[in-house]
Design goal:
The structure is a single chain. Helices cover 33% and strands 21% of the residues. It has twelve helices and 15 strands. The strands form three sheets. A five-stranded antiparallel beta sheet has the order 1-2-3-4-5. About 5% of the residues have low confidence. The longest helix is centred in the last third of the chain and has 16 residues. α3 packs across α4 and α7 crosses α10. It folds into two domains: 96 residues, DNA Primase, Chain A (Alpha-Beta Complex); 220 residues, Dna Topoisomerase Vi A Subunit, Chain: A, domain 2. With 353 residues, the protein is α+β, with helices and mostly antiparallel strands. It is globular, with a radius of gyration of 22 Å.
């Protein structure tokens, strides 16, 4: 019984969340994924395990965005238990499956279609029901992050009472939220990103985000798509995080940019046709290293020049917040291609502090 690796892996995948709760106990569920630091169960959010089958992949498959490693739940058991011989891994997997299955296996229930909470239609409805960001708590939140002037091109809105559900077993709450629309290359809204905000003020720990476990969540079709600021021509800047890219737009307000919602999504972004130069706004961490290498190679394969933009601190929002807009301008002037300095960093585009 369960003698073949593929059969064991399939059985574990059917209990994917239970496997994660047991072997990756330092992580937590977020939507259809289990997030944790790495395959050794370190705290963090770099590794994500798919908990349900979908058209994007099978349950039980995992990827570490920081290292590019990937595998299945047998690999999770092997690494977290420190096992090397497959026979030992298989014995541990059988033991877990025996304990996890507390009742006889029944005829599987039909799989329900994905509910509206994660659909593109729900994302579009939420964005349409939100209000312009100007004069709202969301604008205040960004200004307190150092982004005094927003050049978002209509990609950001505000919802005063956006639903937040801690998990599937707890009732929904409502918090004010910044809503960002995720679009494809044709400008179609495929998803939204929500940043729930603290209505009681801004502190240095949460930086204005609501005091909840996961104050950032996205829904809809995200892979290959992004939050876009400006219309792409032949030059584009791309990076991870809305605040990071809005910080660059503060200094380079006429350069088209996009914000991917994770390092993994940035690596997988769809490159626009006609693009001549891609600026990769990297974060200073292992995930940033991996993204820069992956995206540079993809750009080179497509005949696109890739130029890396590197912050002094962890990301460009930190640089803006700590050093100010003119220091960020001076740093970017040294990293941009000379013709783009003239094109995008003309004195008339540089904001006054």
């Amino acid at each position: 019984m369960f003698s073949k690796p593929c059969e064991l892996a399939r059985r574990l995948a059917r209990e994917a969340e239970a496997v994660c709760r047991h072997y990756l106990s330092n992580g937590k569920r977020e939507g259809r994924y289990w997030l944790v630091g790495d395959v050794h169960n370190a705290p963090g959010r770099s590794l994500f395990v798919r908990l349900q089958d979908s058209r994007k992949g099978s349950a039980g498959k995992w990827t570490d965005a920081a290292t590019g490693e990937h595998g299945d739940l047998l690999d999770v058991i092997r690494e977290t238990c420190g096992l090397r011989d497959f026979r030992e891994v298989a014995e541990e997997a059988r033991r877990f499956l025996t304990l996890a299955r507390t009742e006889p296996e029944l005829v599987p229930k039909p799989v329900r279609p994905l509910g509206p909470a994660g659909s593109q239609d729900a994302a579009r409805r939420l964005f349409m029901r939100s209000q312009p960001i100007e004069g709202t708590l969301a604008e205040t939140y960004l200004q307190r992050r150092g982004i005094a002037h927003l050049h978002h091109g209509g990609s950001l809105r505000f919802h005063p009472r956006c639903y937040y559900r801690p998990d599937e077993h707890l009732p929904a709450e409502t918090w004010p939220a910044m809503i960002a629309c995720v679009t494809d290359l044709e400008g179609r809204v495929t998803g939204v990103h929500r940043t729930w905000l603290d209505p009681d003020g801004f502190d240095r720990i949460r930086l204005g985000k609501a005091p909840i476990d996961t104050p950032r969540r996205a829904m809809g079709d995200l892979l290959g798509n992004a939050v876009r600021f400006g219309v792409v021509d032949d030059v584009l800047a791309a990076g991870e995080g809305i605040e990071t890219m809005l910080s660059l737009r503060y200094v380079l307000p006429i350069m088209p940019m996009l914000a991917a919602l994770s390092a993994n999504h940035l690596s997988a972004m769809v490159l626009p046709t006609g693009l001549r130069r891609l600026y990769i706004a990297r974060d200073v961490d292992a995930a940033g290293d991996a993204v820069q290498a992956t995206l540079s190679q993809r750009a080179a394969d497509a005949g696109i020049e890739a130029v890396t933009l590197s912050p002094r601190l962890g990301d460009f929002n930190e640089d803006l917040h700590v050093f100010g807009v003119h220091a960020l301008q001076a740093a970017l002037q040294l990293q941009l291609v000379p013709e783009d300095v003239v094109r995008f960093l003309h004195p008339s585009t540089v904001p006054a502090e």
